[in-house]
Amino acid sequence: MSAAEQQEILALVKPTLGAILLGLVFSSTFFGVTLLQTYQYYDRYWSDTLWLKLFVALIFVLDVVQIITVIHSNWWYLIQNYAMPQSLSMVPWSLGLEVGITTSIGLLVQGFFAMRVYILSRGNHIVTGSILTLTLAQFILGVYYAGRGQQTKLVATIAQITWASTASLACSIAGDAIITGAMCYYLHLSRSGIRRTDKLIDIMIVYCVNTGLLTTICAVCTIILSEVVSNTYWDTMFYFLISKCYVNSTLATLNAREKLRGTTQYAISDRTVPLNVVGRSSGTSSGDPKAVYLTTGTDMSFAANPAALKTDMSEVTTGSVEV
Question: Where are the transmembrane segments (predicted)?
Fold first, then answer.
């Protein structure tokens, strides 16, 4: 084989098979983090409600299936169709399934965070509805993209419907942005003026920002690469990470409760402290604010229910915040 032919093959393989292989390496790394966080969750929070434990189990199983599809796609290109350049014009079924799994995980995780926003905002239907609408849109567009692509399994056909993938990712980014913005806004309203409790609120705001940041970065990089280098697979290197980021952000949020509980115990030393004003009392003309109380005797389940449930000013103590 001449040097020119070798360079031609290298130019064809590097941005396609090389990108998919790197995607597998990065996905496997993130999957290791998923395994660790899943173990920590069931080890520390076995007393959580059944629905939450089933939810964690579901997204974990989907994440396992996702990494299997990535492994299979690498096997299909690198082993099963070794030295067959024509295979690069086709897409294996595993890549189509991977897209469906990623959008499904996005639907579940964003729905979970939408519930948190709904609770913290005390039933704000507009904000919650906007999040759910964008979440459903990213799921429908993602499934459409995967389904149409698998009808022919040709790269040329899939290139014609790239708009669906881009729109799905855009909806996902918008949903994450609204979730983060809403959580930070309502937590900011929870400031009481007490330095130590405000410090706890600051920690929770940082957690909210961090949970959606990495997912958004991966989605933005996927869109940019799919548009700039559309004839390559470089975008899959980041797309394979999106589901991993969703799962790990959820697990990190759930596993952070123990640390937050310790921070709260240090901050308020087993005293009931008014955490903040987060809304106005209904049924009154004076518009007196509702105070939210927090005690260290509660199960500090901020991850699934970040707002305290007791809001009556006449109450001396609060009930536990259940997940």
Answer: 20-42, 54-79, 99-119, 126-147, 167-188, 200-225
